[in-house]
Amino acid sequence: MRTDRLQAVFSLTTTGTDIYAAMTRLAIASLRQSNPGLAVVVACDNRSLAALKAAASPLLHEADRWLDVDVPPGCATFRNRHVKTRLRELIDGRFLFLDSDLFIRGSIVGLFELDADVAAVPERSPASSQQPLSGTDAEIIAALDWPVDPLRYMNGGVIYYNDTSPARVFARNWHLNWQQSAERLQRYVDQPALNTALHSMPAELHVLPQAYNHQVKWHDAGSELPAIWHYNYTSRREVGTCFESYARELQHGRTLDRYRVAAMASLPFDELLAGDR
Known about the structure:
Distance between the termini: 39 Å
């Protein structure tokens, strides 16, 4: 795919009418309001795109371009990560990958001017980066004896890719690492493979400030006004948010209201976790 426009790219796996399609709609609507010049690309596995078409999803008309990606059969998480880890292979030009559980509330076009091959934000908070890795990520890393830097452990929700050979080598290694995890452990999360690829990559990594991936269930507000709220939908931390509440309404047929999207962009941090907004 070749384009002269700056691109924001989403990877979506969906039944066509589920919460993931609804969150993607809300993320795209927020991006359109805050960064109207960006082209929106959604990459889907074959099964998901067919499901969206069968459901006549409004999302089909809310992206500029769609990538119909052929992937091996597997569960939804497997298919999603198979697409996500291959995006640099599938798309030409600079682009910014965005998870579907994001709300973009400020300008992000400056990221496209970075003098780096890859850019991302550390996982969770600066305080947690000083602690040993735990949970699924730690189990995968230990089982495969992968090298990572716990002081520079990146979150996979926002990733900038420059159009450089080192960025492509990194992305290829990420996909190969993820395939190894999937085949040997049947574990389909992508961050252990991501960080192992970053640890040994020839590319230059630019560590972005939290403002570009502010994980609201794990961070306090901080002093810097974030450009991107990350709601960590699949987090096991049971905290309802206004983003998730509105996404559920969209899932059940509520019309997408751009005035409400604009109002959400101006919410102070202490109101983000109010699920009934």
